[in-house]
Structures are given as structure tokens and as C-alpha cells.
Amino acid sequence: MSDAPTSRSLNDSSSTNHASPAVTVIPGGPVHGTIRPPGSKSLTNRALICAAMAEGASKLTGALSSEDTEVMIEALRAIGVEINVTDGGQTLLVDPAMRARCDDEIAELFIANSGTSIRFLTAALSAFGGRYRLVGVPRMHARPIGDLVSAISEVIDGTINAESTGGCPPVMIESHGWSGSSMSVAGNVSSQFLSGLMMAAPLSLGSQNVAPIELHVTGELVSRPYIDMTADVMESFGGRVVLDDLSSQGKVVIERRPYQGTDYSIEPDASAASYFWAIAAITGGEVTVEGLSPSAMQGDVGFVDVLEKMGCVVKRRSDSITVLGQPLHGVDIDMNSISDTVQTLAVVALFATGPTRVRGVAHNRFKETDRIGDLACELRKLGALVEEHSDGLTITPASDWRSHAGATLETYHDHRMAMSLSLAGLKMRNVKILDPACTSKTYPEFFHDLETLIGRSHHWAA
Ligand SMILES: O=C(O)C1=C[C@@H](OP(=O)(O)O)[C@@H](O)[C@H](O)C1
Ligand SMILES: C=C(OP(=O)(O)O)C(=O)O
Question: Domain 41-255 has what CATH class?
Fold first, then answer.
């Protein structure tokens, strides 16, 4: 792989990107390799909630160690849950024996910009009871949570309030648990609201009412695979969930029964895997991701189906998926169910013949950044013609990308901007990524693993 792409630096060769203001990936030839990404953020944070609220201890293996899981762990420790972190953060021993409501002092919980953490904890703590204020970084205070607060307001014995304009965090909770057993929740902004309420339902045991909790979904439900994931994790911890026709404003019925501690194994992160499958597509190489298969719990494994539609060859096995890059053509694709891979696809689209239309992802505007408008801005710096739509974007690659001078790209504190846009450097020269450390949200070692996969010693650009 003497002509393999790599990233370059003028200063240290540390294996972390915390010190570097920028990274440049240098173009090269086809990339061939195998990789196992770190544990799934979504599964880790679900398992932490269920384990923390269970009867009995749990052992979580294959867990993710990143900012999003660290803020979840610290919040659960604040209510007395003992969480012993070993094996570099991949093994979590959770003992809820000393768990206790924060009834006296208001517990201030810092959530950074972790959507799963703040949505799941808002629901769980409102059902569990106590006094909590959940705060984040400025962007978190502009990410919507009002629909979740409204749903909880229908059942809470106490008060809950989203303090920022437009129903955004900080969230203030003063609760004696849930007294009601039925609520409506909107599904069109984020599936995390429904997921959070589902996982919280068994915690409302304190109320006299032991009837099952009914969650009525209003509007279109986005990111549906995450709801199936939530039900699956809940049942692994002894929960009982019925999903009733969610395709048309259905409902979810959850039995009020305590979670039971258990040993729980977490699969690698499929959203992270998308970057490595994309490397094969972009460079015409062959990349295998281990630990994931078409039967994985994460919907984002479906990203390989999109690459297949663009012309790639995909080999699906019981414990790995391989992508072989082939000449690419643009596609028209609804990515509502795999919205975290839109940025990955957008970069692959830069090297396809013909335009790519991404639809069904209006909700991507509310994530770590506006993942339609800001993404379009950075793609245009790479010469692409990009049309923005209310629900997505159309990307027409530059015909002369091979002679493009390159660009310095903003990442907006969005880990997925940094990880996806860096892949453009595999084919285009002088693509510099600012603030690479922002990958620490879900993948602190991304650029180290990228270097390892593309085969050169590790360097960083000044
Ligand atoms: O439930 C989850 O674990 C997630 C749901 C998705 O959010 P939306 O439902 O807002 O699309 C996704 O973007 C996020 O990374 C993780
Ligand atoms: C949107 C994301 O995460 P969250 O909503 O949990 O902040 C993400 O990881 O792309």
C-alpha cells in the first residue's frame, strides 16, 4: 500500500487528536483492511439506563468509552449508582444497590451535547423522582426537547420545564414520579423522545397505578430502527414491550415491571462503521468491518445497502460485512431510518457519476449541527453543486474534483462532520479538517484508527 492515503502532521505523533487544531488526509490508492469499531453509543447508553434502574447488578461488555457515555455515567453516579469502569472503558460493572432520589438538593447534571443522554435521563429521572437540572453546552440548549417535556407533563406528579426558548434545555425536573399511565408523544423531531419514555415506563413503579403505560405516537415517527433497538434492550433487562402499528401513529404498551440486572454484550457502532465502508467505496478498495452483520441491532448497518445501490459489491457474513469499491453512480434515497450516515453518503457522492438526492431527513437540522445546511456549505467548498431541500439535499459532484485545490473545512463541533468530511482527503488534495478532537463525542480514537486502516505512521497537520 505504498500509495495508500494517510494523514500528515508537522508536530507530534501522538495517537490522540486532542492537541491538533487540524488534520489533513493525503490522497492515495485503494485501501484494503479490516477493522472493528468501538462499541455502539446508542446501545451503551440504553444499557446504562436499564442497568442503573434495575434490581441487581449488571455487567456491560463491549461498551463505548466517549464523551456521550461518560456524561451518562456521571449522571447515574449522581443518583448513587455505582459504575466501575474497566478494560479501557469497554467493561462497565453497574451496581444500583445505593441508588437514591435526589430529593433535597437539586442535582445539576452536565450532559455536554449528548442527545441520548439528556432525552433518556429526562424521561427516566422524571419517572424515578427527585430534583434535577440537566444542562449542556450551548448547542444542546438549542436542540429541541419540548415534545418530550410535554408528554411527561401529562403524567408527572410534580413539575418539568425546558428553560430555553423553543422548548430546549436546560431541563428542570421536580418530581414524585408518574401518576398517570397514558401519554402522547410526537415522533417527527426525534425518536429519542419515545425511546426515553419507553425505558422510563417501568421506573414509574412508585405510583399506585400498576396498569401498563401507554405511549401514543403522534405525527410521523423518524429513525424507527432505534425504537426497535430500545424495545430489544429493555427486554434483555426483563422488560415487556408491545409495539403496536407504529407506522401509522400507533402506540407502545409497556408493562410496569422492574428491570433485572444482567450481563449484556454491546456490538460495535454501526454509524462509526459507515466511515470505513465508505473508504472502500471512495478508494475502490476492500474493507471489512468485524462484529456487525445484517442482523445487527443497529439500523445503520443499512448504509451498506446504499453503497450497493451506488455500485459497490457487499459481502454479508454472520459476523462481518465487507464492501468492495466499484465505479459509483448517484442515487435517490430516503435515509430517514439511517440519518446519522447522511454525511458519510454525502462524501461518497462527491466521487460518483451523476447526482445523489437524499430525502427524509428534515430532523437532521436539530442534531449536533444543522446537518443539511452546514453540510451543504462544506460540500460546496469541495466544488460540489448542492441544492438544499426541506427534507434533505441534492449533491452533484464537481466534474473536475481531481484538479480541485482542496479546502479547509469547518466541523461545527459535530463529530460526524469531522469523520465524514475527512474521507474526501482520500481522493482530493489539501482537504484540511478543523477541530478533529470533536470526534471525542463518540469516537476519540477515530483518526488513530483511520491511520491504522489506511496504513501509514500517525501524523497531524499543524
Ligand atoms: O436513539 C438513539 O440512540 C439515536 C437516535 C437518532 O436520533 P434521532 O431519532 O433524533 O434521529 C440518532 O441520530 C442518534 O445518533 C442516536
Ligand atoms: C445525533 C447524534 O447523537 P445524539 O442525538 O445522541 O447527540 C449522533 O451521534 O449523530
Answer: alpha beta
The segments of the chain whose pLDDT lies below 50 read 1-2, 7-18, 457-460, 462
CB-count exposure of residue 98 (10 Å: 0-12, 13-18, 19+) = exposed
pLDDT for res 13: 35
Which string of DSSP letters, residue by residue, matches 103-152?
-SSPEEEE-TT-HHHHHHHHHHHHHH-EEEEEE--GGGGGS--HHHHHHH
Domain boundaries, the chain: 22-39+267-461, 41-255
Measured between alpha carbons, how far is 392 from 161 in angstroms, rounded to an integer? 31
Interval between CA 441 and ligand 2 midpoint (Å): 9
What DSSP letter does each residue of 285-325 carry, written as one string?
-EEEEET--TT-S-GGGGHHHHHHHHT-EEEE-SSEEEEE-
Q: How far is the CA of 459 from the centre of ligand 2 (A)?
A: 28
Give residue 10's pLDDT.
23
In angstroms, how far is CA 157 from the centroid of its own chain?
31
* Dihedral sign computed on CA atoms, order 41, 192, 49, 240: negative
The tens digit of pLDDT for each residue in 351-408 reads 999 999 999 999 999 999 999 999 999 999 999 999 999 999 999 999 999 999 999 9
- How many angstroms separate the first and last alpha carbons of the chain? 25
Predicted pLDDT of residue 23: 93
CA distance 163 to 268: 35
In this prediction, residue 195 carries a pLDDT of 98
Burial of 335-359, coded b for 16+ CB within 10 Å and e otherwise, reads: bbbbbbbbbbbbbbbbbbeebbbbb
Burial class (CB in 10 A: 0-12, 13-18, 19+), 138: exposed
Q: Is 341 in the pocket of ligand 2 (CB under 6 A)?
A: no
Rounded to whole angstroms, the Cα distance separating 320 from 383 reads 35
Residue identified by cell 421536580 is: 174
* CB distance 191 to ligand 1 below 6 Å: yes
For ligand 2, what atom is nearest to the CA of residue 113?
Answer: 7
What would the pLDDT profile of 107-161 be if each residue is shown by its tens digit? 999 999 999 999 999 999 999 999 999 999 999 999 999 999 999 999 999 999 9
pLDDT value at residue 15: 39
> What architecture (CATH level 2) is domain 22-39+267-461?
Alpha-beta prism (3.65)
**Matching CATH topology for 22-39+267-461 and 41-255?**
yes
Per-residue pLDDT at 168: 98
Bond from prior residue into 170 cis (ω within 30 degrees of 0): yes
Q: What is the pLDDT of residue 20?
A: 74
Q: Which of 42, 226, 335 to mutate to test the pocket of ligand 1 (most atoms within 8 A of CB)?
A: 226
